[in-house]
From TrEMBL:
This is Polysaccharide biosynthesis domain-containing protein. It is a single-pass membrane protein. It is found in: Golgi apparatus membrane. One of its GO terms (cellular component) is Golgi membrane. Pfam families: IRX15_IRX15L_GXM. Its main location: Golgi. It comes from the Eukaryota. GO terms for biological process: xylan biosynthetic process. Keywords: Membrane, Transmembrane, Transmembrane helix.
Length: 219
């Protein structure tokens, strides 16, 4: 990441009081930096590489990481968006417990307790998405959007300020299109270099629309 991108995430982490619940998709060069910046908070990493997760666990005390078996492919991104629209009132709705979801974009195989956490900051910097056969970040973006709307940003005071969600490589088509579909333009705070910053607030009641003014194609 560039210095500007790093600064944007660091600023969001400083806003957390007490320290953040911080969820990161992808193990990168910044992994140890994220742990240090959220010292005293809960920092959880998700990655497709089970071996890399295990190496971090062996080398660093209290490292918390889990491998994710993605079933998506970048080359199927258009089909996945269409699937989500068709099932918007069912398994692909914006407020739900992902653990029980059968939406093709839902990450539903994480340890159960992770679905009960109100995430303050979510960074999407994985999985790989630079070719049609790669898993891409479609499921990560959708799942982060649902997490934010379902339990977003709860503080001990009871006040919810929303979940700050960062999407790296926003200049790529899949990252931009899926962010606009599920995180929404009206929630976009800024784009710094190739890092997009959204704030997604918790939804109350029944809703089948991710974005304002959305015309649902749900059946």
């Amino acid at each position: 990441m560039t210095s500007g991108e790093l600064s944007a995430v660091a600023t969001a982490l400083r806003r957390c009081s007490p320290p953040c619940n911080f969820l990161i998709f992808g193990l990168t060069h910044e992994t140890l930096l994220w742990r240090a910046l959220n010292s005293g908070g809960r920092t959880v990493f998700l990655d497709e590489n089970e071996y890399l997760i295990s190496k971090f666990e062996q080398n660093f005390t209290d490292f918390e990481g889990y491998d994710v078996q993605y079933t998506t492919k970048v080359g199927k991104s258009a089909e996945l968006i269409e699937h989500s629209r068709i099932h918007r009132k069912g398994d692909c709705r914006p407020v739900q417990n992902l653990l029980f979801s059968e939406c093709k974009l839902a990450i539903n195989d994480l340890p159960n307790h992770l679905y009960e956490i109100s995430w303050d900051v979510i960074l999407i910097d994985g999985p790989r998405g630079y070719s049609a056969k790669m898993p891409g970040r479609m499921a990560a973006i959708f799942s982060a959007a649902v997490m934010g709307r379902s339990r977003g940003g709860e503080r001990k005071s009871g006040k919810r300020k929303g979940t700050e969600i960062f999407v790296h490589d926003y200049g790529r088509e899949v990252e931009r299109v899926f962010s606009e579909e599920f995180l929404c333009k009206e929630n976009l705070v800024e784009v710094r270099d190739s890092l997009a910053h959204f704030v997604v607030k918790e939804m109350k009641g029944e809703s089948f629309e991710f974005c304002l003014g959305e015309s649902s194609n749900s059946s």
